[in-house]
Amino acid sequence: MDDVTALRRFNRYFTRRIGVLDDHYLGQDRPLGEARLLFEIHESASGASLRELRTRLGLDAGYLSRMAKALEAQGLVRTSAHPDDNRLRRVELTPAGRAEVREQNRRAGALAAGLLEGLAPAQRAELTGALATAQRLLRLAAITVALVPGASSDSRTCLDAYAADIDARFPEGFDRSALVRPEEVSGDAGAFFVAYEENRPVGCGALRRLEPGVGEIRHVWVHPHARRLGLARRLLTALEAEAASRGFGVVRLDTHASLTEAQAMYRACGYREIPRYDDNVYAAHWFEKRLDRR
To answer: By three-state DSSP, how is residue 22 classified?
Structure first.
């Protein structure tokens, strides 16, 4: 539990140091929650729906609605029907709200500069590097990987994005008919995993039965905005665990010649290159890994 204790200790120090516990965050007349909501609305140039903000911030609908009403009463935001769906409420900043966000950014910048003031340039570089690593790992930790039906809308959304991605990368393009069919990756035949970040699908991977005792991993894909986090390895681990739970002693996969980063990942994860085992016209390398079924 030392890692848990260390993370909690850092959270307590940092939230106190930047004034999160104060009802007047950054010396303005509002707590952090309202200040953050103003910032997020500002980040959406044409305003944002309350549903979108609820998903982005992970807030209870009632709490978000109360904050939005409080900011509207202060003349900082206005709400209206969403132009694309009148069932949704859109919220946008007023001129007074934009002025408040500008001042909020100025004060936040001054606070950050003050925190860094006592550090030498090399120490600043060390700190910013450590913060980048912490953000990457915390993002990865917050992503969930779930087993979903192969015919689900999220599965098909990921496969559509995967097909478009590799169609652009493969010199010969990609024919969508080469994608796994839903029945191949559902039930006893196989499995399909989707990775979610803030309730949005950002990655996927499929497992199907190739022959007795042998599974095949297909279509491991990560959204461009979620790459370089380590998510592809996490999906691969989930697929291997599922294969082992189904009694597969071996998993195989193939990859295109242009996907050099995928080849490097598979080798680093214990896969060894083997002779061709299928007739996939897009494959140039074939890999296999033996699993511990315990």
So the answer is: coil
Alpha-helical segments (H) within the chain: 2-17, 32-43, 50-57, 61-73, 95-116, 121-142, 153-169, 231-245, 260-268
Record the pTM.
0.83
Integer Cα distance of 119 and 261 in angstroms: 37
Residues 114, 136: Cα–Cα separation, whole Å: 24
- Alpha-carbon gap, residue 258 to 266, rounded angstroms: 14
Cβ(57)–Cβ(64) under 8 Å? yes
22 contacts: CB under 8 Å, gap ≥ 6: 31
Tokens matching residue 248: 């597969």
| 221-257 confidence digits (pLDDT tens) | 999 999 999 999 999 999 999 999 999 999 999 999 9
Give every CB contact of residue 134 below 8 A, 6+ residues apart in sequence: none
